[in-house]
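Please check our next protein.
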Amino acid sequence: MTHAGYIVFAHGSSVESANDAVRSVARDLAKAGGYEHVVAAFLEGGRPDLSSAAGDLAARGISHVVVIPYFLTLGLHLQRDLPKLVGEARRDHPGLEIEVTPPLDGHPAMVAALLDRARGSMDQCRTTEHASAGLPPVSVKPEGRSGPVRTSDSVCKPS
């Protein structure tokens, strides 16, 4: 076996469009990083699970897997569940080297993402004001966003 593979590991949801969003992030990671072998895996509520995703990569000739938790903080799932699942994947796929990166918390890009959302909410407020003035609606999509824009008038009203 050769090469490295990557697993974007997320919680998973009973809402399949949420799982599809994670799969989309995995595809975006592959494209942006020039990585040939990137898959999504889920703790619960989505498929494949971690061991199945590791098996898929091993079947492609991957010998080293990097699990990237798509979680904000090092909470219960990453402290308790992920180590157990990695152990199971190692037992299921002997010879497959598996490493796990830290969660997203603390990464400098997180502040940039929050700033983008904060600025985007102000743009949305201006769009809402624009529409309430009887002008045609303006579509606002934060830079880099690939999914649908979710809006709420409440973000524009003072509390």
Q: What stands out?
A: The two ends are 58 Å apart (CA to CA). Residues 137-143, 147-159 have pLDDT under 50 and may be disordered. The first strand starts at residue 4 and ends at 10. The CA atoms of residues 114 and 120 lie 10 Å apart.
